[in-house]
Design goal:
globular, homotrimer, Rossmann fold
């Protein structure tokens, strides 16, 4: 199709919007002083994080009884959500789906585009707008960088926008993963987030979660970060620059053992070999970046071991039984943190009181 | 397997039933003076259309509040539906699914037969009967012509029939598409359906929606139809004969511009090149059958622009912002019209009152 | 990965557990005197079967009205279940799904592992533990023998176990199929289960359902079993030994007609040619093991004809209309028996009273 002036203007509008700094774009995704579309970790400040964590805690307390669960399930019983996951992610999908169900939201699922109208030549933007017609919120995971943000931007220009939540997209942001990781620290530290030493271990170059978590750590005071990785997979310079700009101390090392005794939290990650360009993972000995049962005696008695999962061999299975291994709780925290976020976006967070 | 006399008799019963005129078959799919299985656009007469549209409008009003939505969700909270979509159609699927959810119906989904028992040698009729065992209604889209009707016919001979709704099948009927198109006219015209001029534009030969919509227009008085298409894709003779038989005026033209100022509604359609036998679409210049932004000044101030979607390039994206572009509302109308239809089939339409 | 002593100990723990006799393993899957994980037909004794059947009957009575259905739907409205079906089975899947919905349980579905984290190198045990994080029960069908039991065993060692229900796995047990088959006999015999003659017909060697049903028949007094099969597909020796050990009479024959007049129930099965190693099914004339319309006059007036479905040609379609053909009711019984079982596992069976 020949591009007409009008169509070009839509595209160029988006391109010029997208080119502006994120801080200038954020107001476009807010409404009445609240997050409307949840797209970036940068949308969470300390006060909001604390509020969401308290809401998640309250929701857990509330739903410990049948009566409380039925009450929670009445809060958004009038709402319908679409989970539009065209990039595989069963874990995040299920976490969001059950977060919706806790609040009583009815759900529709797209987990594969092969059956959608995209095959009939429809633009991805039209497809998403179509799906939005039937629901009150879209939770979206999409492989194309920027697509989720563009969808939110487009929807906000229509006369029937719905909130869009970024469920993790390409190499883009995955804000609710950062939210649940921080919530896990918050619970592990009993709310005392300042003055902590956090070790991030493994493939820091290509892991999306450690990047987002680092951004969120800026919300707390006197955080020291240890970046423990093979030299091939060191944390990227943009993150290190970010830390320098904000006067946040960090230490890079290949010696995992040297930081074990220091850390308040150890955040393990797997090697991201799906991003290999020429088998570079095979050239790396990743075993020094494994956490083994024998290490349990080297870490502090309150130090917690985290992992975004899935794991391969970075953490020995027998470590799971140690109370400091919190990665299974971390997964569950994700469901509660997401439920809290959704309740907040719909403005029913104020109705959640500990049971 | 050798066919026994008994089996032959089932088949021949169906074949002789199916061979009778549609007007003779309709009573078999009704119950207590209502549609039981919704299979054909011919099941809708003017009074019923008006009733369904008023019900859909009332449901929208009712559900504008949380209390109203919770009330709507209680109407069929005891019912379970199966969406059996073995022909790809995310759009229609989601529209029906959310229509069910608005009424509180619990849903099961089959969107692919590859996992079903059909692979173990079961007949399609047994498969559907199995699925019907667990639910109170089946909404079905199936590629085999006549299959949906045959299923309804078979189920009605058992001691546990359930209503069957045709979700669009092969080149067969797609009655709820015709319903939502007419509902969109009804809303656009504020209920004044008579004395209208409606232009249908594009690939009229192979578009199912324009055929069904033409049938439904017979319910209204003094309707004039403009059929605007390339000469290769003119409306089929059977439809033109139908119009002549019922004294309904129509005009065929290739000149889209000439009718723009006349029409009360312009129904755009895409080229149906998936039905090409030898690339005949490529031989056609379809651009004269596009609606561009520059055309907005040529149409009447109350003229509405419709499209069954998905679109390719038939309507420029910037047209979307004009209040006369109602195709996005049309999609949403589908969900409400289907919810109204389902409430009617279950006999709870009388409980829907504007909130 | 090199196996460390700790990992080996988990594996060897499971292997030594799994090697013990089933009667010793059962207590590990029970809690507070009830089944917690439903894995084996051996978990059902006569008293429990009767209780579950009475519960299923009561649930049907209760749910005959909208009020009763809404009450049933409130019983487990606080619970969430995951249906993890990585082996194709639409029939069993839908039966369980709707059983959950009857009780108000919210459901998540995994019907295919290709999108799961298994592709990222996660162990199947971790995958299941992940999924369990979000829900209160898992209903699982998995192709690997022993996998469902191992999952239940592993989950019971964690600090957040959830009940696991075996939805049929490989050549393993399919306990709820045996439950629904026995429930169908119970309803057909109006609760009088003793002194019955039951014919099992077809591919007895490779059919899982006839094996499980035979086990459950031991719970009743004076049951005589007829095993009617081609000589290539006779019931396996382990089952015959089981019957001898428990003094249960049985007769093996190839002459279907000879037992038709004797049986109180005829349990038909299809040829299981998907288990063929070298096309052995094609060498067998299966037609003597078909039930044809002409046989209806040979069986007793209260004899019932069952089939686990799907069928191919073992039962002529015209037989369906005879009131003694109960296989369609058998399918529906499955949903109710499963709902009764789930209500029992969650301890809300006591709240189900006939409406």
């Amino acid at each position: 199709m020949k591009r007409t002036p009008e169509m070009t203007s839509v595209s160029s509008d988006w391109e010029s919007f997208h080119a502006t700094d994120i801080s200038e774009r954020l107001p476009f995704f807010a409404k009445d002083g609240r997050i409307y579309d949840c797209l970036f970790a940068q949308q969470f400040d300390r006060a909001l994080l604390t509020h969401l964590f308290e809401t998640a805690d309250a929701l857990r307390g509330l739903t410990a009884t049948k009566e409380g669960m039925d009450y929670a399930g009445s809060l958004l019983s009038h709402a319908r959500a679409m989970l539009y996951f065209v990039q595989p992610s069963t874990r995040t999908f299920l976490s969001f789906l059950n977060a919706c169900h806790i609040l009583g939201i009815r759900t529709s699922e797209i987990r594969d585009t092969s059956t959608s109208s995209e095959v009939k030549g429809e633009s991805p933007e039209d497809t998403v707008r179509t799906f939005s017609s039937y629901v009150d919120m879209i939770i979206m995971r999409h492989p194309t960088p920027g697509f989720v943000e563009k969808t939110a931007w487009l929807m906000n220009r229509t006369n029937r926008p719905v909130p869009i939540i970024n469920g993790g997209s390409g190499k883009d942001q995955h804000p609710t993963q950062a939210l649940l990781d921080t919530y896990t620290l918050y619970r592990s530290f009993k709310g005392n987030m300042d003055n902590r030493k956090i070790a991030m271990v493994g493939d820091l170059k290509r892991g999306r979660t450690v990047r987002s978590l680092t951004y969120l750590m800026r919300n707390y005071r006197n955080i020291t970060l240890y970046f423990v990785s093979p030299k091939q997979f060191r944390m990227e310079p943009d993150i290190l620059d970010f830390l320098k700009r904000h006067d946040m101390p960090f230490i890079e090392t290949e010696d995992f053992r040297s930081v074990m005794g220091e850390a308040d939290a150890i955040y393990m990650t797997r090697i991201q070999d799906e991003h290999d360009k020429a088998g570079e993972s095979r050239a790396v000995d990743y075993s020094p970046f494994h956490f083994r049962a024998e290490h349990l005696k080297l870490i502090g008695k309150n130090c917690v071991i985290m992992h975004p999962l899935p794991r391969r061999h970075e953490i020995e299975v027998t470590v799971d039984d140690d109370p400091r291994a919190v990665f299974w709780r971390q997964e569950r925290n994700g469901m509660w943190a997401r439920a809290a976020l959704i309740s907040y976006i719909f403005g029913v967070d104020g109705k959640i009181r500990k049971g």
